[in-house]
Amino acid sequence: METLRFDSRSVDDTEEFLSTAYTPMRIGGPVEDARVRISRHAVERLSVDRLSFGYDMAFDAHGLPGVCLISMHSGTLVDRTGGREQVYGPGDTFLLAPPGTPYRGEVRSARYTIAMFDPALLSGLDPSGTGAPVRLTGTRPLTPAAGRALGSAVAHLRDHVLGDAARPPTGLLVSTAAQHLAAMTLAALPHSARTDPVRADRTDATPATLRRALAWIDAHADRDVTLADIARAACVTPRALQYAFRRHLGTTPLAHLRHVRLQAAHRDLLAADPATATVTDIAMRWGFAHPGHFAAHYRTAFRTTPHTTLRRTDHPAG
């Protein structure tokens, strides 16, 4: 995992750092006591930054290559991109600007979290399966509830996936978290993806489609799997795949994938040596970053706790 830290009281040094770490920009602020602290944890094209500005800083920046979400903790951020003005404060989560779009505004004595990911993930979640790039067409969540859900997704990435440099996340954990954040972004923000179904999506939602998808998931659950991957393997659109799972199993493709991975984690717990293995390591191996969520899913599926399974008295290693 890549880690980065910056702590300065110099506006010039801050401008140079921000231009290198994010995108070229010009900033303005007080000559003295311009305290800035920034930390970053990143892996592949997924990152979480914590930023603290102890003063009011104006900025005028080039576009960012990735999707950049901001969750505010204190202070305010004023977005003046495109001649409009939007003010965000504590509790708000929003898109700074669509990828590639220059942005400008002002940070006013603020603390906030930035989460950035590859915009290609959005296209992989397009239910129409056209392969066309999905564009985010607005920066503010559609509803307050959608904003809170998006903020929770950012916090999950910050606290449970990229929060510990001493425990780098597995590839499966990273891909699962990135897809979750991308899905929550599409659910929360306006976008260009086609949402209305076509007739073929319903007629393709057959038992044969479901069988192909189930077999492929079983064979690839230990890999980085997207909704689009499963749909391609089943020879249908992502929306038709979702219809098939809902119609014949009463679930979704990604929920079923999570169940298959939960079953795999259960087998690993049964086979592991409790003297050397941990529930956290096994859960992370199968893409479960949050210990509490993993334990809840596990208890629902197996009527016991993962710790009980790992430490049972009839363990083979005993």
TrEMBL record:
Superkingdom assignment: Bacteria
Residue ranges constituting the HTH araC/xylS-type domain according to the UniProt record: 211-312
Keyword vocabulary terms for this entry: DNA-binding, Transcription, Transcription regulation
InterPro entries tied to this protein: AraC_XylS_family_regulators (IPR050204), Homeodomain-like_sf (IPR009057), HTH_AraC (IPR018060), HTH_AraC-typ_CS (IPR018062)
Gene3D superfamilies reported in the protein's UniProt record: Homeodomain-like
GO molecular function: DNA-binding transcription factor activity; sequence-specific DNA binding
Signal peptide residue numbers: none
Name under which the protein is recorded: AraC family transcriptional regulator
Annotated organism of origin: Kitasatospora cineracea
